[in-house]
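Collaborator request log, item 7. Partner lab (contact: R.S.) asked for a structural prediction of Glycoside hydrolase family 42 N-terminal domain-containing protein to inform their binding assays.
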Amino acid sequence: MKFIYTLRYMLDPLTNTAEKDQQLLDFVKKGQIDDVAFFINGEELNHSHLTKRETQVWLDAIKLLQAKLAAIGVTTSLNPWTTIMHSDRGYHVNPQIGFNTFVDLNGQKANDMACPADPTWRKYLTEIYAQYASIHPKRLWLEDDFRHYNHTPLGLMCFCDYHMHLYEKKLGRKEARSEFVKKMLQPGPPTMERKIYLDQARTEMIETEHLLEQAVHQVSPETDLAQMTSYPDWHALEGRDWNNLFLAQAGKDHPQIARPHLPAYNEIAPNQYGRFFEEYTRITAAFLGEKTELYPELENYMYSPLVKSTTFSQFQIITAALIGSQGILLNLFDMMGNGINQSWHYAEMLAETKPFVNQLLQNRLPIEHLCGIKVLVDQDSCYNLQTKRGLDVTELLPHEKNWASLLGAMGFAITILPVSADTKLQKQIIAIAGQLLRNFNNQQITQLLQDNVVLLDGESIQVLLDRGLENLLHIQKAVWHKCRTGYQSFEQADGKKVDGVINPRITMLQHTGNYLQLTYDPESNVNIWSSAYNSVDERLGNFMAVIDNHLLVLPVDQDPRHGWEAQFSTYKQGLLQQMLTSITSLDYLEQMPNVKLLLQADGKIAWLANFSSDSYREINWHTGKKLLHNQATLIRKNGSTVTRKQINLRQTGSSVTINEELKPLELIQLIFSK
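Returned to partner:
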């Protein structure tokens, strides 16, 4: 089994040279590239949607290199840069092509971006993809402009006359665009308008995928159709049905293939990257499931080591193993036709990395078979969540990712679990954020909270209040207090000790959500772990608590800009570890902030990845049960080689110590044996 390197490469058919071709071939050999995905009509060279004649110019140029690559055992794929079109850039749709452009929720009409249900556009796209298939590429990608959002400078689509006719037909009445959008977003129970919009967006994308699959495989039965994805919370806003969309893309005889987004086009702090990795990459992978071949995207924009070091790029490639990736897409060089830049030393980095990622693939991480806290997400949440003001489309974004980024950074073993309305869980540790509970009826919510250890945030608690289920948490009174109003200033864990600090404090002033002050029935089983205070040390009320020995509450919502940033404190890390170990058994790393722990469900393999710039002299692991093994094989990268070392595990009570250093930006794999 081999980890596939796919190099995304821009060949300019107007200015390409034999010298650039040779540099590409040399790079492919030196960097151990397995597949080259040629861009077509991308970025700076894009000049609107191409006619068949214009497209053939690109294909003819690519075919010349396709033969040379095949001679050295390298496959050719195609990465057309447009389906709908990413953004308006001064062009208009060629009248010879002649499809209609979309209209956003504000009534603005695009110049160059297609209406996703327009029959002429669908016909054009299927014919152009059939033309791409004529050179029989290994994979034929759909760009991530295949979506209903993020088409600058316009907003959510589509509300053109054609779409409004479809909506009105389902409504059974005429309705102005502005009124339809207003009702889509309005506070209170979701409207028929919102359901109609989501159903239409979901259906039309699946239909288009099916048409493309049929057209491509009629011309080239051996070509795999593959799709690039973006942010899962925004995909929820377009009603994305992950399973059925990818089934339509694959057809009967092909694998489901996806490129999840790796959220760092420029180098960012590794701890920040670790948070985004949980929120976007791991959640996307969970929606796609183990059956999907994953090739995430390494993109260094605007390119060169000035925007991202080779060390960080290597770290992104290696940590792609944490979603069970079978390869990676490498967008290392610009899309203007400059070709390969050998001075950036990417080939050397890729060659050095390849043996290790090949080794990791031998025990591929099973994303559906991991143990730990289950962070719940639901692709259908936009159907049921409620807006507060109804003034901005971002109010429809689910807030279900917060526990994932927080617990992952704190060293807890977690897994992402997509759920649906018929999901039933028992005897699990689950974490629920946002309005996910609105997807269940009251009986299901009651069962979920009674039969599991559950972590809840303030938005989840508000759903219980709205449903009249406050008795599940023994709540007598609940009052929201906004941030930065002079009321709450910090949280204090009275009588507790974390990191050697007695009564540790964590800010409630900023970079966090609003505070939901809860008063409980005095006769109930509620253990208060921290309280809210104002700036002159006056206790205001309860904050974090454990209810009935199995419900843990963090009563805040999220800041519109900063999410839960204030919660990323080792004081909160230590407090959560103490709270959870007081009520259940679970796995986490101690005194190792920003190190991720992933555990296979059968306990045979663990992955540890250091998303920080700090080195840890030894690994301290709190285990939820006595280890069945006292030895393990430690697999790590050592330059361009892979080392395998038998190590001893020392367990005292629930603490396991591994006397091995974990370096900055390092991933290791542990395979346990008796």
